[in-house]
Specification:
Blueprint lengths: L1 E2 L2 H18 L14 H23 L7 E2 L7 H24 L1 H15 L4 H22 L15
Antiparallel strand pairs: 1-2
Helix pairs in contact: 1-2, 3-4, 4-5
């Protein structure tokens, strides 16, 4: 899928405006001319400049590049199903990871996707188990990022 530069440019400007608006809610420091909102605001201004450049490029290319051009991959139902499954797994994790927990969610998602993409059941389970425990160890023990335990809270280590 290909987009004319005007579309991501517009999205970039909208994101930058939201970022600047959020940064404006940061508390002011007493006696300072600038505060914690300075750098996010400067970054937002830079993003607005980049978005404006993209929009001008998109306008200049409008005769040769359509707004949206769907690639050949979208003609294959298997490819579309793969994209839908990945997006569905992301939504599944967002909605159920707190109640189900990271480990069961990750095992389920990785196993399903690996099988869908052509791995055998055995290989999928082995890779899913190894990957889940490596990710959990790195995030929870090394980086100290708390991952949801969900149904495994009674046996949390």
């Amino acid at each position: 899928m290909r987009f004319n530069n005007a579309i991501p440019g517009t999205l970039l400007i909208l994101f930058a405006l939201a970022e600047i608006a959020y940064a404006a809610t940061f508390p002011r420091l007493h006696g300072q001319n600038y505060g914690p909102d300075l750098f996010p605001t400067l970054i937002g201004i830079g993003l607005i400049v980049c978005g404006t450049i993209l929009i001008f490029q998109g306008i200049a290319q409008r005769a040769t590049v359509p707004l949206i051009q769907i690639g050949d991959w979208a003609q294959d139902r298997d490819n579309v199903l793969n994209v839908v499954m990945v997006l569905g797994c992301i939504v599944f994790y967002i909605l159920l990871s707190d109640s189900l927990g990271f480990i069961p969610s990750s095992l389920l998602i990785l196993t399903i996707l690996l099988i869908r993409f052509g791995s055998s059941w055995r290989t999928s389970l082995i890779v899913a188990i190894a990957t889940t425990f490596i990710i959990h160890t790195v995030f929870a023990k090394v980086l100290l990022v708390p991952l949801p335990w969900g149904i495994l809270l009674p046996v949390a280590w």
